Amino acid sequence: MKKAILLSGGMDSICLAYFLKPDIAYTIDYGQVCSDREILISQKICRILEIEHKIIRVDCNSLGSGILANRKSIDNSPSDEWWPYRNQLLVTLSLMRAIKDDIKEIHLASVKSDKFHKDGTDKFYKIINELSSYQEGNIAVKCETLEYYTHELVEKYKVPIDLLLMAHSCHISNIACGFCPGCLKQLKVKQELNIS
Asked: Does the keyword Transcription apply (predicted)?
């Protein structure tokens, strides 16, 4: 059974790629400001892990909100990094590619700290899996990482530190800014893992 993952080049998806070793990894350029670096890191990770890598490009920047789109957040945004219906968009775009690739499972890496977003919860993934499984292709959408924090994933999956240190988590730039939520999360994970 062919499996795919969504690979952003961040720590969580790198952990999942290392553990799962899927047939294909999809990196999606949906108009986020840091897409170039996400693609570059994802390509490198796939070369190292010998995973086929495919890039999906659909410019949805005009629909975005918050720092990922370099825009002011809309009023009902739960955080500066929130992009309306982002995970739903990413799952949908990957499913559109996956059905052509004869993929039967798509895996995503959302972690415990993502649960303040509705699309980072177990309930969301159950609903999106039911919807995807109902439609043509019957592709399962899975997120087996929800009960873990990032540092716990690194330890559970025994991810090599040199692979992890390649991650790009910055939300506002193709060069890590050091102060956005993504960069701060990466620094926190390094501290939790005692990486200097």
From this structure: no
